[in-house]
Design a protein that fits this description.
This protein is an alpha+beta fold and 324 residues long. It contains 6 helices and 16 strands. Strand 11 and strand 12 form a beta hairpin.
Length: 324
């Protein structure tokens, strides 16, 4: 009986050891399979196991002649309304009190500068007729320069708010000024004076046409965008500063590939797609986006007709490709 108990104990221990060994083997295999998710041949080509590669859906690239469309979100930054005194220029209403205050300070500085210019011209004329001394001329010149510096400072403050004083002063009663930030890659397709179609949530099912009147001089270093200003004459009275608008700028006909938005990833401002080369190889391809319809991108460089691009789980490929 005692020998039988020892036999049962030995058999039980063997089973436990065997089971643990089998579990460790399965865990080791699972770990190896997990580690063999993908390999990177170079900076842009991924090699995936066949069973994982089949999990990505692709579509063929089709090149067609399309009318480019730039689609961005804009914001009403100012509106010109009739002032209480009809003899004065239109009253400009802004989306923020800070912008209104800076514009007021600019107008005051400009009035002081113009007054100093007139005063300087008057003193110089008096000096020519010996009615003013050299000291009077020097004081007038100094005051003129001080007012000029104050005007430049006020204009700089206003520009930091994203507003251009010359644009505001050109606004007619009933017009609105819209600012939108355009990606730097789209800038070659935006021209001064061209039409910009827009729609507002406050005025559903209506389309309005404005014009591009100004482009900012610099690119925002963080967003890599350029501010574009659009004016809409005779805007509906319901439109208020601070409201958002959907801006659409229609461009010329070009040959472009239509790419779904979900197929595109962006890294450091550069858009990419993943092209499937064969059953297990995927390449990260930089592209040039020339238009945006809202649902699809119009790509003019980086793709060839017939190539297959990945349209699902692209963020996973992005992480594998860039080593995130």
């Amino acid at each position: 009986m005692h020998a039988f108990r020892w036999m049962v104990l030995v058999l039980t221990s063997g089973c436990i050891i065997s089971g643990c060994s089998h579990h460790d083997t399965q865990q080791s295999v699972a770990t190896q399979q997990h580690r063999a998710v993908a390999t990177v041949e170079n900076d842009s080509i991924l090699v995936l196991p066949p069973e994982q590669a089949r999990q990505f859906t692709t579509i063929p690239v089709q090149i067609d002649s399309v009318g480019l469309m730039l689609r961005v979100t804009g914001r009403v930054v100012a509106k010109a309304i009739i002032a209480a005194d009809s003899a004065v220029p239109p009253l400009i209403v802004f989306e923020t009190n800070d912008a209104a205050q800076r514009f007021t300070e600019y107008l005051k500085a400009r009035a002081s500068f113009e007054h100093s210019s007139t005063q300087l011209a008057r003193v110089r004329e008096m000096a020519e007729h010996h009615a003013a001394s050299g000291k009077d001329v020097l004081e007038a010149v100094t005051e003129h320069r001080l007012q000029q510096a104050a005007l430049l400072d006020a204009e700089s403050e206003l520009r930091q708010s994203g507003l251009r004083p010359d644009l505001l002063q050109r606004m007619n009663t009933g017009s609105i000024l819209i600012a939108c930030d355009v990606p730097e890659g789209f800038l070659p397709y935006v021209q001064l004076g061209e039409q910009a179609h827009m729609s507002f949530a406050a005025v559903p099912n209506q389309d309005f046409v404005g014009r591009v009147i100004e482009l900012a001089d610099a690119v925002d270093p963080i967003t890599r965008t350029v501010r574009v200003f659009i004016v809409l004459q005779h805007a509906p009275s319901v439109i208020r500063p601070g409201m958002f608008a959907t801006i659409r700028i229609l461009k010329r006909q070009v040959s472009a590939a239509i790419v779904p938005r979900q197929a595109v990833i962006v890294a450091e401002g550069q858009p990419y797609v993943f092209v499937q080369l064969d059953s297990v190889h995927f390449v990260r391809r930089p592209i040039v986006i020339a238009g945006d319809t809202g649902k699809e991108f119009q790509v003019t460089e980086g793709l060839l007709a017939g190539e297959h691009i990945v349209v699902t789980r692209t963020m996973l490929l992005k992480g594998l490709s860039f080593g995130y």
